[in-house]
Design goal:
- By secondary structure, the protein is mostly beta strands.
- It has one helix and eleven strands.
- The protein is globular, with a radius of gyration of 13 Å.
- The N and C termini lie far apart (about 40 Å).
Length: about 130
């Protein structure tokens, strides 16, 4: 298992931006596909974005396409989520997650496909 720690959450106004980071440790970071999930109050956790081990390929859920950007720096063992044009419905606890690298190419983006999780960071968007 790889250990994951998120940071960067907070409060933003609608239309604003926030950037999240997730630092990994314990295993070779480049062996993993990485993803961001989120869980809003009273709702199930949902997939947001994923990135391949190299960072070349990315995949987003439709609701964040064009607004969010996932990226990674394998030299720093860190994955990022840049969130622009934020909406109140983006309010949630955001989690980063890691999965074996092949999962990205097999399009395995369910919660059960990711074996390592961070503790989450709160993002609140006010209207």
């Amino acid at each position: 298992q790889v250990q994951l720690v998120e940071s960067g959450g907070g409060l933003a106004q609608a239309g604003g931006s926030l950037s999240l980071s997730c630092a990994a440790s314990g295993r070779t970071f480049s062996n993993y596909a990485m993803a961001w999930f989120r869980q809003a109050p009273g709702k199930e956790r949902e997939f947001v974005a994923a990135i391949s081990w190299s960072g070349v390929n990315t995949y987003y859920t439709d609701s964040v396409k064009g607004r969010f950007t996932i990226s990674r720096d394998n030299a720093k063992n860190t994955v990022y989520l840049q969130m622009n044009s934020l909406k109140p419905e983006d309010t949630a606890v955001y989690y980063c997650a890691a999965a074996p690298a092949d999962n990205f190419y097999l399009r395995r983006y369910r919660e059960v496909d990711f074996g390592s999780w961070g503790q989450g960071t709160q993002v609140t968007v006010s209207s």
